[in-house]
Write a structure and sequence with these properties.
By secondary structure, chain A is mainly β. Chain A has strands at 4-7, 10-13, 19-25, 31-37, 43-50, 56-57, 68-72, 75-80, 89-96, 104-106, 110-114. Helices cover 0% and strands 54% of the residues of chain B. Classes of the chains: A mainly beta (115), B mainly beta (109).
Chain lengths: 115, 109
């Protein structure tokens, strides 16, 4: 299994500002995923980040709002830009597990509150 | 449109009894399902999975049942323990994973 860390673990930000969340994995992985869990909602995939290529965004999420970097095989960042209170969520990164299963390993999450 | 639905936001069960968490899905083409458990301030952790070629998968105290005709799966925890208190998400396998909203299980000692 992969060990994943995220920074920061939580933050309170003012509307209109941006926050960059870091995700570090203890092994090299091809694909990294960014999810959001809004209060009372399901875990929703924001985008898939492959090293060396542009991230692939899910419907409803755009690069201008959630730019992603993937500089190497163990690290990724997600930026939440021009924040509004609706962006208050837990943001999680994850990586794929065994290639024979669909299991994913998740980081501990970043709890973001926008005031 | 929610592809995976968990209609019970919460469930309370006494220690030692059975916990049954339910999940419905909309697309009969889905062929792999997973259950994740999430404690506060931690990321979800994989619990158990089931492929559509099976109707049951068991791992210790945890058993997942799949009813393809009803497009329904359930997670049974027997016997329930206080440490099982967490939020449980069912999800459709295949990338990208699609999760339900979760069910908060409280096991009361």
């Amino acid at each position: 299994s992969a060990v994943i860390s995220q920074k920061p673990s939580r933050d309170i930000c003012q509307r209109g500002t941006s926050l960059t969340i870091q995700c570090q994995v203890d092994s090299q992985v091809t694909m990294m995923f960014w999810y959001r869990q809004q209060p009372g909602q399901s875990l929703t995939l924001i985008a898939t980040a492959n090293q060396g290529s542009e991230a692939t965004y899910e419907s409803g999420f755009v690069i201008d709002k959630f730019p992603i970097s993937r500089p190497n095989l163990t690290f990724s960042t997600l930026t939440v830009s021009n924040m509004s209170p609706e962006d208050s969520s837990i943001y999680l990164c994850s990586v794929e597990g065994d290639s024979l299963s669909y299991e994913q390993y998740f980081g501990p999450g970043t709890r973001l509150t926008v005031t | 449109d929610q592809q995976v639905k968990q209609n019970s936001p919460s469930l309370s069960v006494q220690e030692g009894r059975i916990s049954i968490l339910n999940c419905d899905y909309t697309n009969s083409m889905f062929d792999y399902f997973l259950w994740y458990k999430k404690y506060p301030a931690e990321g979800p952790t994989f619990l158990i999975s089931i492929s559509s070629i099976k109707d049951k998968n068991e791992d210790g105290r945890f058993t997942v049942f799949l009813n393809k005709s009803a497009k329904h799966l359930s997670l049974h925890i027997v016997p329930s323990q206080p440490g099982d208190s967490a939020v449980y998400f069912c999800g459709r396998g295949n990338t990208p994973l699609v999760f339900g909203k979760g069910t908060r299980l409280s096991v009361i000692a």
